[in-house]
UniProtKB/TrEMBL annotation:
Parts of the chain that traverse the membrane: 68-100, 225-250, 262-282
UniProt keyword list: Cell membrane, Membrane, Transmembrane, Transmembrane helix
Cell membrane listed as a keyword: yes
Pfam family, one: T2SSF
Subcellular location: Cell membrane
PANTHER family referenced in this protein's UniProt entry, alphabetically: CONSERVED TRANSMEMBRANE PROTEIN-RELATED, INTEGRAL MEMBRANE PROTEIN-RELATED
Protein name, per record: Type II secretion system F family protein
Organism field: Streptomyces hebeiensis
Bilayer topology term: Multi-pass membrane protein
The keyword Ribosomal protein belongs to this UniProt entry's keyword annotation: no
């Protein structure tokens, strides 16, 4: 376990992005020539810095090319070598799709939050452009260009606004994307302003206030549930802590788990109970997030 922890720390340290001072030296040489860089590091230090920068670039490129989901396999290989069994390799292969699903869900949530923030900024910017005296179509185009709140539907919505098309319909279609629910409210405000002659700016101000209140409520709820998620993570790592304690006391828990009938039975039953417990706890926390 100590070797595994040390390897994990080394991997994190290798792929961590850092800012290299050699970039400033190269800029100085480009602007002022070699004389401008005379106050830099002593001769002999620059090649080492360049070599470190090259290795850091390769490590960052490797981290971008290799998804984090495949890190399950090196951990499985280490456990297989320590336990002298093929079972950790099978578990690592089975864990890849599960971890990938979790990572994709996290990326989807971040994309939804970003899209919601852009829609909120779009409503505020458009209200400001209307107060500045722009027409609705021009205000929508200016706000969309500065905030990106329309996303991939920007061209269709702006074309409808510029050429007299169905702007509310285009906004509702754009609002069907996850996290872009505010565009449906913008479509309703546009419809009311066009059909009833109501002020579009006032409606956008109220819509922005509602969207901001919903975002603050959502963020507050997530902050309150952070402790529950921490509990789930602690429960997930309790078996690892138990194995580490057994190893520290001089036992060989991996040999017992992988090479004895009783250990294999405990491994199967414990794995099933661990998975069921994590699934149930995560379900409870997610239910709290949707309240």
């Amino acid at each position: 376990m100590a070797a595994l922890a040390g390897a994990a720390v080394c991997v994190v340290a290798a792929v961590r992005p850092t800012v290299c001072q050699e970039r400033g030296l190269r800029r100085a040489r480009a602007l002022f020539g070699d004389a401008g860089a005379a106050g830099g590091p002593a001769p002999g230090g620059v090649p080492g810095a360049c070599a470190r920068e090259r290795w850091r670039r390769r490590a960052r490129g490797w981290a971008r090319r290799v998804p984090g989901v495949w890190l399950c396999l090196p951990v499985a290989v280490v456990l297989a070598l320590l336990g002298k069994s093929v079972l950790p390799l099978i578990g690592g292969v089975l864990a890849v799709p599960l971890v990938g699903r979790r990572l994709r869900a996290g990326r989807r949530r971040k994309a939804e939050d970003l899209r919601a923030s852009r829609v909120l900024a779009l409503c505020g910017a458009m209200a400001g452009e209307l107060r500045a005296g722009l027409q609705p179509a021009s205000a929508l185009a200016a706000a969309a260009g500065s905030t990106g709140g329309l996303g991939g539907a920007e061209a269709a919505v702006l074309a409808a606004a510029r050429f007299g098309g169905d702007v509310p319909g285009a906004l509702r279609r754009a609002g069907s994307a996850p996290g872009a629910d505010g565009l449906v409210g913008l479509a309703a405000c546009w419809r009311v302003a066009v059909d009833g002659g109501a002020g579009l700016g006032a409606g956008l101000d109220r819509l922005e206030a509602v969207l901001r209140a919903e975002r603050d409520q959502r963020e507050g709820l997530r902050a309150h549930l952070a402790g529950a998620w921490s509990t789930v993570v602690v429960l997930a790592f309790l078996p690892v802590v138990g194995l580490a304690m057994g190893w520290a006391m001089g036992a060989n828990p991996l040999r017992v788990l992988f090479h004895t009938p009783a250990g294999l039975g405990c491994l199967v039953v414990g794995g099933l109970l661990e998975g069921a417990g994590l699934w149930w706890a995560a379900r409870i926390v997610r239910a709290g997030e949707t309240v």
